Amino acid sequence: MFNEKTSKRRLMLLSVVICIVPVLILYFINEKKFEELSLAELETENNQVANLVDKELAKMRQTVLLLANNPAWEKYYTEPERKEYWREQQVKAFQYVKEQIPETDEACFLDDTHNGEEVVRVDEEIAHSHDLSPSEKQQPFYQAAMAVNRGEVYQSMPYVSADSRRWVFGNVTPLVIQENGPYKGKKVGLIHYEVNLSYLSNELIDSDNNEFEAFVINNNGDLIASSTQEKKDSIAATVENAANLSEEEFGEFQGEVTLPHVNELTGNTELWDQISQTIKGTHVIQKDGKDYFVAYENVKFSDDMDWVVGLIKPVPRNAFLSFSNVVMYVTFLILLLFIVGAWGIINKIFNEINGYQKDLTKQAHYDALTELPNRVLFQKKVDHLIDSIKNEKNQQAFAVLFIDLDRFKIINDTMGHSTGDSLLKEVASRLTNCVPETTIVSRFGGDEFTVLLSNIKNKVVVHDMAKEINETILQPFFLKNNEYYISTSIGISMYPIDGSNSELLIKNADIAMYKAKESGKSNYVFYQNEFNHQPVRRLQLENNIRKALELEEFQVYYQPKIKMPSEEIGGMEALIRWFHPELGTISPSEFIPLAEETGLINPIGKWVLRQACMQNKKWQDEGLPPVVMAINISAYQFHYGSLVQTVTEILKETGLEGKWLELELTESLLINNEEYVLKSIENLKKLGIKVSIDDFGTGYSSLSYLKRFPIDTIKIDRSFIKDILEKKEMKSITRAIITMGHGLGCQLVAEGVETEEQKELLTTYGVDQIQGYYYSAAVSKEHATAMIRNNRFFQLEDKIKRA
Question: Does this UniProt record's set of keywords contain Transmembrane helix (predicted)?
Answer without folding.
Answer: yes
